[in-house]
Design brief:
Its main location: other. This protein is an alpha/beta fold. About 40% of the residues lie in helices and about 20% in strands.
Length: about 180
């Protein structure tokens, strides 16, 4: 006499398998990377490639900045940001930290007069050299469409551009590969 009762077959639970999680994670990383690359390309397509635009720039402390000359010694981080930019609150501390090791020139875009920008820098304990682009002229010349935007300049040429939130390892990689 045989037992013809159907046996319970337990369904395979994919989510219990570590390989499934790893594959899902890898898929998300690839998708996120492709989207980030596409967004960077779109936001930076109107920005200068090659030679740095020649324009006079003066920091809040009155120092004249020549990006071409400054970038011949080592790569320069040119950081476009704004006091009103929510994403800049995450990126600015990273850029400030890098200013201890690399030349960083920041451009505060449409963030008010010099006194207001200086007060913001002091209240957030930021120490990088800052140019106030009160009317957005520098940002327009550079074709900035989003803040924050980070440009790596070496030997007077634009080497790398990224927009949006970036991490310390991401910024360090851009500097090393420039």
């Amino acid at each position: 006499m045989s037992d013809n009762t159907p046996q319970k077959i337990e369904p395979k639970r994919k989510w219990k398998n570590p390989k499934w999680w790893l594959r899902e994670f890898a898929t998300l990383v690839v998708l996120f990377s492709v989207m980030a690359f596409a967004m960077d390309w779109w936001r930076t397509q109107d920005m200068p490639k090659g030679a740095v635009p020649a324009m006079p720039m003066t920091t809040l402390s009155g120092e004249s900045i020549d990006l071409v000359t400054l970038s011949h010694e080592e790569p320069v981080v040119l950081y476009f940001w704004a006091t009103w930019c929510p994403a800049c609150k995450f990126v600015t501390p990273t850029v400030d930290w890098f200013s201890d090791s690399y030349p960083v020139i920041s451009v505060a875009m449409t963030s008010g007069n010099n006194r207001r920008v200086q007060a913001y820098l002091e209240s957030h304990d930021l120490h990088f050299d800052t140019i106030n682009d009160e009317k957005g002229i520098i940002g327009q010349t550079w074709g900035i469409q989003a803040t924050p935007t980070i440009v790596i300049i070496k030997n007077g040429k634009v080497e790398s551009i990224t927009t949006g939130i970036t991490t310390p390892p991401g910024l360090l990689a851009r500097l090393w590969f420039s």
